[in-house]
């Protein structure tokens, strides 16, 4: 093996396309393919698998790319230190989170990174399907979501429960609600998650149990949007308090009730693989 083999592999691993990479590096596609094949033969394992027109990293390929990232980052760091006197480049960790997640919870998860100088992080908000697709393709290092996933034969997920947040009835100040059976709750206006969300199912069951007749003025599957609606619409909302912690602190909103046995769970999802990003390991250790 030499560094030309590794360099060609590294560029293909980043793009996922052989033809585009060959054009970028000004080499023929056959020469590029041959160099990668020699590297795979030397290592004794495939580094890519083909999915349609795209090349996707195998487990061994992901491990090789992680080492290549560090090797070429160190090479660039050497040039910068000698020519420019700059300090070493930060390590990058890529964190994906479901677009429905509480931004306050995501900020809490990365709070240690915010305080550090040597770790660079990228946050990617996306739909759940895209989130797991990018995790499976090694484009992010960890996925944050509010739904648990289970691994299958083709994809081995590791799902860790980070936090279980109680869900409360939140609204503007002014009501005199003391319990679930309070008549003042019977014909209130509400902003709620849509019907396909577990939190909404729990609310519907409680509505039937306590004979509420909710006037549902808006639905949103995005916690950030529910936060804004709760703050600005004057309607009540059912959301975890972490979502509106700033509004609760400054008095814009108040908690009227905590829903019994209703929780919003927050998970970190990673792939089962021989190498885990060291920064992800440290972040998850905070939730033991």
UniProtKB/TrEMBL annotation:
<dbReference type="InterPro" id="IPR000847">
    <property type="entry name" value="LysR_HTH_N"/>
</dbReference>
<dbReference type="InterPro" id="IPR036390">
    <property type="entry name" value="WH_DNA-bd_sf"/>
</dbReference>
<dbReference type="InterPro" id="IPR036388">
    <property type="entry name" value="WH-like_DNA-bd_sf"/>
</dbReference>
<dbReference type="GO" id="GO:0003700">
    <property type="term" value="F:DNA-binding transcription factor activity"/>
</dbReference>
<dbReference type="GO" id="GO:0000976">
    <property type="term" value="F:transcription cis-regulatory region binding"/>
</dbReference>
<protein>
    <submittedName>
        <fullName>LysR family transcriptional regulator</fullName>
    </submittedName>
</protein>
<dbReference type="InterPro" id="IPR005119">
    <property type="entry name" value="LysR_subst-bd"/>
</dbReference>
<keyword id="KW-0805">Transcription regulation</keyword>
<feature type="domain" description="HTH lysR-type">
    <location>
        <begin position="1"/>
        <end position="58"/>
    </location>
</feature>
<keyword id="KW-0238">DNA-binding</keyword>
<keyword id="KW-0804">Transcription</keyword>
<dbReference type="Pfam" id="PF00126">
    <property type="entry name" value="HTH_1"/>
</dbReference>
<comment type="similarity">
    <text>Belongs to the LysR transcriptional regulatory family.</text>
</comment>
<dbReference type="Pfam" id="PF03466">
    <property type="entry name" value="LysR_substrate"/>
</dbReference>
């Amino acid at each position: 093996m030499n560094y030309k083999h590794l360099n060609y592999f590294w560029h293909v691993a980043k793009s996922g396309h052989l033809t585009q990479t060959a054009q970028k590096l000004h080499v023929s596609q056959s020469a590029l393919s041959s160099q990668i094949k020699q590297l795979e033969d030397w290592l004794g394992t495939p580094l890519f698998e083909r999915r349609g027109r795209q090349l996707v990293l195998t487990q061994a390929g992901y491990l090789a790319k992680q080492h290549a990232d560090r090797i070429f980052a160190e090479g660039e760091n050497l040039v910068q230190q000698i020519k420019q006197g700059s300090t070493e480049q930060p390590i990058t960790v890529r964190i994906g989170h479901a677009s429905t997640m509480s931004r306050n919870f995501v900020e809490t998860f990365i709070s240690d990174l915010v305080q550090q100088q040597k770790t660079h992080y990228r946050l990617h908000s996306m739909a759940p399907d895209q989130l797991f697709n990018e995790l499976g393709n090694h484009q992010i290092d960890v996925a944050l979501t509010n739904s648990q996933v289970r691994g299958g034969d083709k994809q081995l997920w590791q799902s860790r429960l980070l936090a279980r947040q109680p869900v409360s009835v939140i609204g503007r100040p002014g009501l005199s609600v003391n319990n679930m059976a309070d008549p003042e709750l019977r014909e209130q206006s509400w902003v709620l998650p849509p019907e396909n969300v577990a939190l909404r199912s729990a609310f519907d069951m409680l509505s039937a149990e306590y004979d509420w007749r909710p006037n549902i003025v808006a639905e949103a599957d995005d916690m950030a949007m529910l936060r804004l609606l709760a703050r600005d619409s004057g309607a009540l909302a059912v959301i975890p308090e972490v979502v509106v912690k700033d509004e609760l602190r400054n008095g814009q909103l108040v908690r009227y009730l905590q829903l019994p046995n209703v929780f919003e769970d927050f998970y970190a999802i990673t792939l089962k693989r021989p190498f885990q990003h060291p920064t992800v390991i440290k972040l998850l250790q905070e939730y033991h």
